[in-house]
Amino acid sequence: MNTVEIILLAVGLGLDTTAISFAAASSGYTKDSRAIFRLSFHFGFFQFLMPVLGWFLGRSLLSSISSYDHWIAFVLLALVGIRMIRSGLKPSELSSKTDPTRGYTLIMLSIATSIDAFAVGLSFAVLEVSIWYPSALIGIVTVVLSLTAIKLGHRLGAVFGQRMEIFGGALLIFLGFRILFSHLLG
Known about the structure:
Blueprint: H1 3-26, H2 33-65, H3 69-89, H4 103-126, H5 132-156, H6 161-184
Helix pairs in contact: 1-2, 1-4, 1-5, 1-6, 2-4, 2-5, 3-4, 3-6
């Protein structure tokens, strides 16, 4: 994968955290710099960490799955993309009683939004892509998207939040098809 593809993948993965950041900001949870830091740092860190964990798991399974690895990468990305699209079509689940920038809620949101990145890490292992550069780029892009969404959320409200998750899911499905076709067509 080249840098542009990794950035596109990072944007696709980061859009669910972007939607949450946008909703948190538009709901007034990110009024101080500590809340902004906590939210963007946790999302970026988990988006960095989960592909690494997925990659290590995938590397241990690589020799037994090499003949159909492109199908695995396609299925994982497609499932993640479909999940993101379905999630984007549901009404927002951000509760006005639960502060998404603190404690258990923040950790659970960070894990939930980075499960997609774990699956991508598995895909990278299958495709024999080095993990450190893509993971770092995914984490950085996630932080930038989160900070940008917080800034926009303060100004625009929660009008477009979930639509970004639909776009991210579609982007992951597209990348899955691209990987599948590039392996099938040589």
